[in-house]
């Protein structure tokens, strides 16, 4: 059920799904909203499959300082954490007991862990679980830190009209210090952070998308066991 389309009388779900992404450059071939589009698509699909979930409007803006002077629209870490904390705190008025944060952007991961700790240990409700979609093994397997084979294939599966295949560099490389000491601007190839040739493969995209859905559903069942105790 989509929160933004319900009346207050029809708010009956017990678990909220909050997709969170970013608005940042994804190389010359993928759209700025890639992380948000992926997180939102996963959340929509999960909401269709589960009973008892409430789909929140997507938080498109995240913390993207790791992209230096390359195009991004984002907020700083402290503001981002406060914003998400406030959203979660206000959900007590919806009658929900738990919220799954479905995160599609690597730069948000640690910040969301801090927020979920604070909410879980200081508020009565909701109980919060963070699901980092980029934690899937496939990203490591294809050495995709940003806008590489996995993200490109996911977008090819979800929104093929937004993938500019002719813009993909013939080969790519990155410094091992990218995203720790270096921004993607300094450490990657044209804003991309991966090695070798980027594969555009709908099958990979479909498989990863399905794995993301399973990951979120697994966390929902964990959260259910806690909130129903
Ligand atoms: Zn991304």
Automatic annotation (TrEMBL):
- Would the keyword ATP-binding turn up in this protein's UniProt record? no
Which GO biological process annotations does it have?
Answer: riboflavin biosynthetic process
Origin superkingdom = Archaea
Q: State the UniProt keywords alphabetically.
A: Hydrolase, Metal-binding, Zinc
The protein's matches in InterPro entries, at most eight in alphabetical order, are given as: Creatininase-like_sf, Creatininase/forma_Hydrolase
Task: Return one GO MF term.
Answer: hydrolase activity, acting on carbon-nitrogen (but not peptide) bonds, in linear amides
SUPFAM superfamilies cross-referenced by the UniProt entry: Creatininase
Q: Which cofactor does it need?
A: Zn(2+)
- Protein name as it appears in the record: Creatininase
């Amino acid at each position: 059920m989509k929160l933004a389309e319900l009346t207050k009388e029809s708010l009956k779900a017990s678990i909220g799904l909050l997709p969170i992404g970013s608005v940042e450059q994804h190389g010359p071939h993928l759209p700025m909203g890639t992380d948000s589009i992926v997180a939102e698509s996963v959340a929509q699909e999960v909401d269709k499959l589960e009973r008892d979930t409430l789909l929140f409007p997507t938080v498109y803006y995240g913390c993207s300082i790791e992209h230096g002077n390359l195009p991004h629209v984002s907020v700083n870490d402290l503001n981002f954490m406060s914003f998400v904390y406030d959203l979660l705190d206000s959900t007590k008025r919806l009658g929900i007991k738990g919220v799954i944060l479905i995160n599609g952007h690597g730069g948000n991961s640690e910040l969301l862990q801090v927020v979920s700790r604070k909410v879980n240990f200081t508020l009565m409700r909701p109980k919060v679980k963070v699901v980092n979609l980029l934690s899937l093994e496939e990203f490591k397997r294809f050495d995709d830190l940003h806008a590489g084979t996995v993200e490109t294939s996911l977008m090819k599966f979800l929104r093929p009209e937004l993938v500019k295949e002719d813009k993909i560099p013939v080969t790519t490389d990155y410094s091992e210090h990218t995203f720790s000491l270096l921004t993607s601007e300094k450490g990657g190839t044209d804003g991309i952070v991966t090695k070798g040739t980027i594969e555009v493969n709908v099958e990979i995209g479909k498989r990863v998308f399905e794995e993301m859905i399973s990951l979120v559903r697994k966390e929902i069942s964990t959260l259910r066991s806690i909130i129903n105790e």
